[in-house]
Specification:
The chain is an alpha/beta fold and 309 residues long. It has 14 helices and eight strands. Strand 2, helix 4 (58-63) and strand 3 (73-77) form a beta-alpha-beta unit. The longest helix is centred in the C-terminal third of the chain and has 16 residues, at 244-259. The radius of gyration is 21 Å and the shape is globular.
Length: 309
């Protein structure tokens, strides 16, 4: 069982090690997924330790039942961006010893055609982390203007052919609704004049639309900003990112919070007045060649760890 988790859960040991688990500490797994990180955290906790896991995916909520008999574990079916109000309600502000975030879409979500995340599998074009809330990718593409589609593809997917793809989507939907993953993948493929032999032409477009539909980057920024109010002194923040946009947000947040107040140059300020809230713990960590060979998805993963001062 453990071997299976290690193969499927990216940077499993590194991310949990980054939390510097205290046996009786209180920890947050902000992206439960299928429980790989949670299981290892529980293995390291003592009888008085606590783990609160969060996920907005209904299948993750079902998977969390594997720990229902462990009184150290509590699951919350909601978005991790709601972590602040949740902990305030439980009177746990500044009492958390570690928060782990494993960002992006998980392998089980990609592998299920009916979730609509993958261009490699034919299924309904949904892409929502929580299929019961918000607007699906198909619903958005049915009404979005060309400029909005172009902006999403460019800003969230860094797609250099965003204009061509946006126009192709508008032209296609004039005669037929775009409702499946393979439809969209084909539209994008035909719209791209130059192909990357190492990457499917639809990769960036699917990423961009998924991020937009789930508001992923805004929610990440909101969550990071409240972590100083959640973590106890010495508490750790451990974040795994899977593409440059996420990692850039995490990197800049840690750098800014480690630097402290931005006083005018030359102003006489004591170090104690700078109000540094975090310090970076080590450098960014990437998956080993061994892990990448077993789980190719880990190739793009970047782990950053910070400690609350």
């Amino acid at each position: 069982m453990q071997a299976q988790i290690e193969h499927n859960t990216v940077l499993l040991n590194e991310a949990v090690d980054g939390l510097n688990i205290k046996p009786n500490g209180i920890y947050i797994d902000g992206t439960f997924g299928r429980g790989g990180h949670s299981r290892l955290i529980l293995d390291k906790l003592g009888a008085e330790g606590k783990l609160m896991a969060i996920d907005r995916d209904p299948q993750a909520a079902k998977s969390a039942e594997q720990f229902k008999d462990d009184n150290r574990f509590e699951f919350f079916y909601q978005n991790f961006a709601k972590i602040g109000p949740l902990l305030e309600q439980k009177n746990l502000l500044k009492k958390i010893d570690g928060i782990l975030l494993d960002l992006g879409v998980s392998s089980p979500q990609l592998d299920q055609a009916d979730r609509g995340f993958s261009f490699l599998r034919d299924g309904p074009l949904d892409m929502r982390m929580d299929p019961e809330k918000g607007v699906s990718a198909a619903e958005w593409l049915a009404i979005a203007e060309v400029d909005e589609i172009k902006r999403v593809l460019k800003d969230y997917g860094e797609e250099k052919f965003a204009t061509r793809i946006a126009r192709a989507i508008i032209e296609y939907r004039e005669t037929e609704a775009i409702t499946t993953t393979t439809q969209l993948a084909k539209i994008v493929d035909l719209a791209c004049p130059v192909k990357d032999k190492f990457k499917h032409p639809a990769t960036r477009s699917f990423q961009a639309i998924r991020i937009f539909v789930n508001d992923e980057l805004n929610e990440l920024e909101q969550t990071l900003e409240v972590t100083p109010d959640l973590l106890a002194k010495g508490g750790r923040l451990s974040v795994i990112s899977f593409h440059s946009l996420e990692d850039r947000i995490v990197k800049r947040f840690i750098k800014r919070k480690s630097r402290g107040e931005n006083f005018p140059k030359g102003l006489p300020v004591m170090d104690s007045e700078v109000n540094r809230e975090f310090k970076a713990v080590g450098k960014a960590i990437k998956a080993s060649s061994t892990e990448v060979s077993v789980n190719p998805r880990s190739r793009s993963a970047v782990l950053r760890v910070a400690e609350r001062l």
